[in-house]
Design a protein that fits this description.
The protein has 359 residues and is α/β, with parallel strands linked by helices. It is 37% helix and 22% strand.
Length: 359
Amino acid sequence: MDFVTMGMFIIDEIHYPEPKKPDQDVMGGAGLYAALGARLFRPARSSRRVGWVVHQGHDFPPHIKKTIDSWGTSCQFISTPDRPTTRAWNAYEPDGYRSFRYLNEKIRVDEDCLTAEQLRSKTYHLICSAERCISVLQGIDRKRRELATADRMNEHTATALMEKPFFIWEPVPDLCKPSEFESFLEALKHVDVVSPNLDEFCNLLGISIDLERPSGWDLLRQKCAELVEPSTEESEVALVVRLGEKGCFFAQPKQNLILPAYHEQEAASQVVDPTGGGNTFLGGFALGVVESMRMDRGERLEEAAIYGVVAASFAIEQVGVPTLHRSMSYGEFWNGEKVEKRLKKYRKRVQMLVDQAKE
């Protein structure tokens, strides 16, 4: 297993400014989009290496089940026939601001939801509070050790289970505030990558950053460096601040990097709904980590960020998830395009930016 997300699956209803009619029964949730980000880089022959959990209520729409099944992932459906599926209400204001609230009680994903196969994953994505992040990571470690003990006859498998997987933590937006900063620092000791978006990053630190000004970029670099420089060889964390249409800012000890968004300003018309773009970025990021295992840490995480940017580009081109089409002769297409073609195109663009910076 290459990737498992601990994010939830949610069925959304999305409301827009009049006269546009609302969309109902839209697939959503951090778990869905993170799984999508990883699945983009694991076509049918290896799609089972992407794992996630869906709590399936008595109202689960058949068309959603059909779509999930078509991806061929290791999706753990947990039946909850005594209650509806977790649902949420979303509303977009004319200025683009999105309001969100749950319509019923949510069911969170923890280590006890995972199958034995999912407990063998190389990478994990979490979106939660700092305290819950530490708790779930410790729970995953405990379950992996139990599995290794039970599987001690297979030395190779047992050894792999005893190794620490790669953890990517997405802080829950509501708890990105100065009063949570000490808990945030404590969680950094347990994860490999932490990734808030810019608003969440600013709210956590109690600051304002205007990226329309050069001083804003300087402040972003400074604050990121202050968080990652205390890292040690035993516990080295990277920070990826997601910047929406400006791409992402990546920082780890002695290195920082800005990667642009895939869809440039002239292609802004291709961006239909940014919902889930950040979660999809992190699912793609995780697969980039897996694909670049032989690189040194700096190159590895830079490559992972490239995967993340490309993954996010597919998520934001429509309401809900991109359309998957399979061709017997040419393989998989998402929204009519091959993922590897988009990845190659973006890599070339990044290399041109790097070359220009050296001139």
